[in-house]
Amino acid sequence: MGAVAGEHDAAFVGCSAGYYQELIDSPPPREFRTAPAAVHDVEVNLSIANMDFEELAEAASDDPTGVLRLQ
Fold this sequence. Notes:
single chain, alpha+beta, 3 strands, about 35% helix, globular
């Protein structure tokens, strides 16, 4: 997975104690990468339950580079 020159990405992994076993038992993807500009949007969407982890991970896997880039 390559990034655009000068761009870094962050990995998000679901890791709350109550969610841990469900995460282990769930099919991949269990993590995803996101562009720094999208980190705030990821946090907000998860906090207000607008999108769940699986939706965000799936959106990232749809990107050719595997990086979530919310607009």
